[in-house]
Backbone:
C-alpha cells in the first residue's frame, strides 16, 4: 500500500522499518514504470544478499547480475526451457511424478520430456540407477537426440519429499558427467516438516567444487507467505556461459520486465524483518504460527490417509502436499473405462461429487504404470481439516465397498 500510494508514506500507519523499506524502494524506482528487464537493481541486490546469506560465503559470491526477477517461478522455468530446447530431438529429464508445468512447457517448445521415476517405497527418493535407465531409454528411442537438462524439484511437488544430501550430490555428479544443465526448482524451501535439513543445490554443488551449469528458481507463492496473486519470484544462474546469459537476457527483455510490485514483494520476502526492527515480533510470531500449523497438518493428513483401507501415503517431509496411492479394484477400473476416464480421475470426480472435496488425480502428474494416486494439500485450516478428512474417509470406504473392495 505504501508503494502504490506514496502519500501514505508521510503518515504513521505502520511500523518504522516498514516505512523505511517503502521509502528505500521508492527512491530506487517508480513502481508504475517499467524497470530493468532483469528487475530493479536494488531489489536484485537484495535477493542476491538473501542467497548469499542462505548458502554462506564458502561457495562463492552471488552477483546481482546473476539474478532475474520474475512473475513467480513459472516464467523463469519457461524461459530456461525455451533457451535449452532448440529442436525436436532435445530431451529434458524430469521427475515422475512431476509438476505439470515441465511436461507442458517442454511439449510446447517441441522438446522431449524424459521421465525418471521416483522411488515411492523409499519416500519418493531419487536414485541414479533409475535416472540412468531413463537416459538409456532416451538414447535407444532417439539415437540422434540430445539430453540438455535435468529438472530437480526439491522439496517435491506433488510428492512432498525432501532430498537427502547424498541424493543431491549424486544428481550434481550425474549432471557433470552428462554435461546437463541443472534446473533446481526450490520454491518450497521454507516448507520443511521433518528433521531433514534442506539445502540448496547451489550450496551442495559449490561445496563439491562442481562447476555444473545451474539455474535455480524460487517464488513468493509458497512458504509461509503464499502471495500467489502478486506474482513474484526469481531465477538465479550459476556457471552459465556469458554468451548464453546474453541470450537469456534477450529472451526476458521480450516481456520488458516482471511486475514491479511483485519484484518488491520478492525482495521483502527474501529479506524479512530482523531482530531489533519494530515489526519483528509481530512478523516472527505470525511466521512461526503459520509454519507450526502446517507442520501439524502434514502429520495429521499422512496419518489419516494411512489409516484408510487400500490407501498408503509416504511421510510428508516437505512442500504442501500428500500424494497417496490408492488400490483400485478391477471393477472400479472397468467402471472408469466405461465412463471414458482414467481410474484415478474417476475416483477424484466421484469424491468431488459426493463431498465437495477437490483433489488432483495422479495421472495429471504422471505416475508409474499400473499405479493410481491423487494429490491433496495440507492447506485447509487446522480447525476444518479433521471434518474434511472425515468426509473423505466415509466416501473412500463407500467407494471401496461399491466396487468390490469390501474386504479392505
Residues:
Amino acid at each position: 500500500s505504501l508503494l502504490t500510494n506514496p502519500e501514505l508514506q508521510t503518515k504513521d500507519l505502520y511500523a518504522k522499518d516498514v516505512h523505511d523499506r517503502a521509502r528505500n524502494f521508492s527512491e530506487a524506482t517508480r513502481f508504475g514504470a517499467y524497470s530493468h528487464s532483469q528487475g530493479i537493481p536494488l531489489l536484485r541486490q537484495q535477493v542476491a544478499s538473501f542467497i548469499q546469506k542462505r548458502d554462506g560465503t564458502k561457495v562463492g559470491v552471488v552477483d546481482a547480475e546473476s539474478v532475474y526477477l520474475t512473475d513467480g517461478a513459472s516464467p523463469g522455468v519457461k524461459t530456461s526451457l525455451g533457451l535449452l530446447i532448440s529442436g525436436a530431438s532435445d530431451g529434458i529429464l524430469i521427475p515422475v511424478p512431476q509438476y505439470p508445468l515441465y511436461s507442458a512447457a517442454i511439449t510446447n517448445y517441441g522438446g522431449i520430456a524424459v521421465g525418471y521415476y521416483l522411488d515411492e517405497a523409499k519416500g519418493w527418493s531419487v536414485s541414479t540407477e533409475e535416472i540412468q535407465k531413463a537416459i538409456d531409454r532416451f538414447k535407444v528411442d532417439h539415437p540422434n537426440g540430445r539430453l540438455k537438462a535435468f529438472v530437480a524439484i526439491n522439496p517435491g511437488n506433488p510428492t512432498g519429499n525432501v532430498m537427502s544430501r547424498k541424493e543431491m550430490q549424486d544428481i550434481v555428479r550425474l549432471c557433470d558427467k552428462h554435461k546437463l544443465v541443472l534446473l533446481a526448482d526450490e520454491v518450497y524451501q521454507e516448507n520443511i516438516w521433518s528433521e531433514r535439513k534442506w539445502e540448496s543445490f547451489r550450496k551442495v554443488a559449490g561445496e563439491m567444487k562442481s562447476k555444473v551449469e545451474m539455474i535455480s528458481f524460487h517464488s513468493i507463492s509458497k512458504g509461509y507467505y503464499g502471495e500467489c496473486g502478486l506474482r513474484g519470484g526469481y531465477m538465479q544462474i550459476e556457471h552459465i556461459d556469458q554468451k548464453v546469459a546474453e541470450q537469456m537476457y534477450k529472451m526476458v527483455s521480450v516481456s520488458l520486465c516482471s511486475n514491479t510490485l511483485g519484484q518488491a514483494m520478492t525482495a521483502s520476502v527474501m529479506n524479512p524483518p530482523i531482530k531489533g526492527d519494530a515489526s519483528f515480533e509481530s512478523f516472527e510470531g505470525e511466521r512461526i504460527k503459520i509454519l507450526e500449523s502446517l507442520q501439524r497438518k502434514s502429520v495429521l493428513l499422512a496419518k489419516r490417509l494411512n489409516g484408510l483401507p487400500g490407501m498408503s501415503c509416504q511421510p510428508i517431509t516437505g512442500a504442501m502436499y500428500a500424494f497417496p496411492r490408492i488400490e483400485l479394484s478391477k471393477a472400479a477400473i472397468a467402471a472408469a473405462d466405461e465412463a471414458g476416464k482414467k481410474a484415478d480421475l474417476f475416483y477424484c470426480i466421484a469424491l468431488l461429487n459426493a463431498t465437495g472435496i477437490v483433489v488432483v488425480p495422479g495421472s495429471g502428474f504422471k505416475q508409474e504404470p499400473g499405479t493410481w494416486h491423487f494429490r491433496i494439500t495440507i492447506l485447509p485450516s487446522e480447525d476444518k481439516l479433521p471434518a474434511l478428512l472425515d468426509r473423505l474417509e466415509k466416501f473412500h470406504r463407500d467407494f471401496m465397498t461399491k466396487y468390490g473392495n469390501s474386504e479392505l
The two ends are 55 Å apart (CA to CA). The CA atoms of residues 59 and 346 lie 49 Å apart. The first strand starts at residue 67 and ends at 70.
